[in-house]
Write a structure and sequence with these properties.
173 residues, H-NOX domain, 2 domains, globular
Length: 173
């Protein structure tokens, strides 16, 4: 967000946050700290409302950006030599490093991979769009430049059915 909108954009977002979330950000958050999911939602919604169209598409773009920017050097090697199925299944194994509830499972075939997120305590479109963006960018980082993620089922808050995301690409690549 800072890269695209500068200090003025950051001020706009801070002003749009709930007061307790604004206070948390102003106090500073360590990269390794556990962040309340409500802050994730508020931050994503505020950014999307301020600089997007309010349809959560910007949340997807931020998830994609996160996949490209936040990769440790070790994982970059896996993206270059591994398959998308390997990358996504690895992500499923470390889901609980990033989230305190739910689980991610992955199935895949020739030209597709399906991500299913189940048992998440606070279902929200910001998460589904962010994960879809991350998955699509991850596929592209493995060389599948035509990969596209689609939400097959996007539960709204209060709907605890599994979220389903399918990523498709040209199977002959």
């Amino acid at each position: 967000m800072r890269e695209h909108h500068g200090p003025e954009g950051e001020a706009t977002v801070r002003a749009g946050l709930q007061s307790d979330h604004r206070a948390q950000l102003e106090a500073g958050i360590l990269r390794s700290a556990w962040v309340p999911f409500s802050l994730f939602i508020d931050l994503n919604e505020t950014i999307d409302r301020s600089f997007g169209s309010g349809d959560f598409a910007l949340c997807r773009a931020m998830g994609s950006y996160g996949a490209r920017v936040n990769l440790p050097t070790l994982y970059r090697i896996f993206y270059r030599v591994g398959s998308i199925a390997f990358i996504l299944k690895r992500a499923a194994r470390v889901w609980d490093v990033h989230y305190s509830s739910g689980r991610l499972s992955v199935t895949s075939g020739k030209g597709w991979a399906r991500l299913i997120i189940e048992d998440f305590d606070e279902p929200h479109p910001t998460l589904w769009e962010s994960v879809a963006g991350w998955g699509e960018a991850s596929a592209r980082l493995t060389g599948l430049e035509d990969a596209l993620a689609k939400l097959e089922h996007r539960p709204e808050p209060g709907d605890y059915s599994p979220a389903r995301i399918i990523i498709r690409w040209d199977p002959d690549r």
